[in-house]
## 1
Amino acid sequence: MTAGIWFKPYTLENLTTLRKANMGEHVGFEFTAIGPDFLKGRLPVDHRTTQPFGILHGGASCVLSETLGSVAAWMTIDPDLYRAVGLEINCNHIRAITEGFVTGMCTSLHVGRRTQVWQTDITEDATGKRVAISRLTLSIIDHGTLSTQKEAIHVR
């Protein structure tokens, strides 16, 4: 267990329950490490995550980055009071990979009261070479905000 920048000391076991029945589970994502100021996870490069030409799909890199960044942001806030929701993601694809695994290491660039920015460096497990680098910007909203927005949309 480690606290660091986190709201409370989370473990990998705590995070494993978050990936049930969502995009992360569908593509084979798994959390691999929590440090005092970083979160790591990995993704297989296989039929679920490659594009038609057999290389890692750019969207899969974004899934890795958004999963890590969103969870990392959530780990810094009181989950009973707030939620972290994505505003923007940017991903630069640097190297093609056709098999194995990629690992993302997510670190904060800014952890504010209402916005956060997280960077994920994605590397190939076999060589350690950089495959992509991504930046995710999130908004920290009050816990009830999403349901209030949904109700307002249905009223219109």
## 2
Amino acid sequence: MQISASVKIIKIGYVVCLLAAIGIAGYLLAIHNQDEWMWALLAIPVLGALYLMVRHLRRRLVKLTVLDDRLRYEAGFLSKTTRTMELTKVQDVRVDQTVGQRMLNIGNLSLETAGESSHIVMPSVDRPHEAADRILEMSRGRHPGV
């Protein structure tokens, strides 16, 4: 099972940038604008799209993989951080959601482990309650007598 950050908000941002670019271009064409500097307004949605591309790339480079007996958290591209913890040590899985995240069925997934000061947060995960339940179910399946 692999968990990664949702790109729902990023996709909405791309649509907003595209609509803003179309709106600005349409407006300038409709008023028969002769001032070339007014076309510089198109830089606003272009810069917004570039910002979203960077965020999109960052989100795609962070993932949490649930293996048979352990969790592996990986982040980064050129310099990569990998954390591995035993699935049996997972003690608490928490889901935090804002109102906007609840509307999109995404949320932040926090994992706490026993005996260590280990804490992992996966931001903006799709269907976070299902992921949390699955991780706890797999963790309890590994604990004898639980």
## 3
Amino acid sequence: MNVLHVISGIDKINGGPTVALLGLVRAQKNAGIDAPLIPRVVPRVIAAFARPEALIDAADFRDAGIETTLVGPVSRLIRGYHSSLHASLTKQIQTADVVHIHAVWEPIQIIAARVAKKMNKPYVLTPHGMLGDWAMSRRPMVKRMLGVLGADSLINKATRLHATTTIEQAQLLRRFPQGSVVLEPNGLDTSEFQVLPPRGFLRDRFAALKQSKILLHLGRVSEQKGLHVLLPAIASLGPDFAEWTLVIVGPDGGAYEQARRREARELGIADRVIFAGPIFGADRIAALRDADLFALASHQENFAIAVLEAMAAGLAVLVSDNVMLHPTITQARAGGVSPLSVEAVSRELVRWMKDKSLREEAGQRGRQLAMTEFDWNNIAIRWARYYAEIVLE
């Protein structure tokens, strides 16, 4: 069964959607090889690109044996558009049994849906949180315009919508009550986490961390991630927690990052905040391993792969209640969940920072959960069955 994955970008700076897609297609390529009753999936990827770095990052897909087509560089004036998108998608969709579209608001997704419907090919839409309540509240006029131009049709005509958590599923069904929603989490390549590296990666890289406890943020440096809440929460803790340093791992956040750097100086905590830049591959696991607590105070996360990776690395995790994975964290007692306010985040930070045994026990429980329940290989097998089901409809 040939499955074509369509996405607007696969360079690493895109964060979660790229990480999730790479994990899924790697697992799909191998799923069912030794299990004759599992439908065999041959995944392919077509992506638009704007940054030349995508041409380098495509090697991750090709090294995994995934046929990968890139179209671009796309227009910045007409966001995400390229004149060859329609022809490239038509060629790729012709030989696909199922089209799996990732994300929502760019021309590649809209055109892929139109071509798939014209060819009578079923398609799955994974919105990657872009249809969540907070995301839909951002730039509503632009989204209404894009809806008229084709995004509404992309969503409403999907054979299946894909939710990664029960909270995302509920939001999708409330917004699109006629939709058929597959509930399936994102996952991990658990082999990356079987043997964890020794501690010391971040402390060796940054001399200021030698005698520090590390609170780690891993993800894009953007408004969505809530650093403008986390920083004042840290500043409010007082001298009893002066041994803690916030390490922010993620690509340059532009104007938002510059504003946070200024904010750290104004709050008097600039010497306790390190902007470490992006860290990928095995080094990201080493960074997680070296931390003492993980924090993500987001306005919205439909899943948050970084949280799952932190758990797999044995870290207790502290998240806002806008991280839709939070019921799983609470049920597993793998960390803390807080409303998204400075006061609430501050209280939760105090609880976890002051109690090493609480952190260690939660980290052990989280690691066990992540390694047993979120293996990409098992998720890929279930996806093969979903695809087979919609092909037969």
